[in-house]
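[audit] Reproducing an earlier prediction to check determinism. Same input, same settings, fresh worker. If the tokens differ from the archived copy the diff job will pick it up downstream; this log only records the rerun itself.
[audit] input (208 residues):
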Amino acid sequence: MRFQRSLLTIVAAFVFTQAQGQDDSQIWVQVGVNSTNTTTFTPNVIFAQPGKTVMFNFTQGNLTAIESSFAAPCVPVNIVNSSISGFNSGFRDISPGSSPSDRILAIPIINGTNWPRPQFFFDYNTCGVGGVGVINPNNSALETIDGLVRNAKRLNGSSHSSTSRSATSGSSPTATSTGSDSDGVAHYSPMSISATLFLLVGAGVTLA
């Protein structure tokens, strides 16, 4: 098992490196927890102009890339702000036999759609320990990557993480206080979302 994981990491890193050199319109982000569980997204800050495509390359583990917000880093952005649908990879449980389509999530950068606004994102299983990132951060604002990580850790009590969760690609991974439904998919509990929003409003955070 350990050999398989090492081989998968090597192969994924090779594909990641080769792909980066093939198309300069693509910006690649490697998604995979390292041996010390300190990095989920590499890099976790991405600058991409319109016409570029951010390519999330899932390399190992059962991880996600879900758009969120600075105020609520571990909650899908469409729950906090219904005017933004956001991107959502669903869970990508990568193994040596995973197909290329399972490994890649492509996010095109389009002027007037998702540019120039920042796009914050998170991994469901590691968000509470800093598994977050941002596309096109606003350097003139206070919404920095360090602040995003702090918010993710501070608000982690509003949701529960589990590496055993699974979901179809494109669905929203969620959580309840009691675990998952019979379909094996985790769900956000309305109470946990309400508690998160209560904390944000109480802190004077503007969500719009």
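[audit] rerun output stored. Observation attached for the diff report: Helices lie at 2-20, 77-80, 100-103, 145-154, 190-202.
[audit] end
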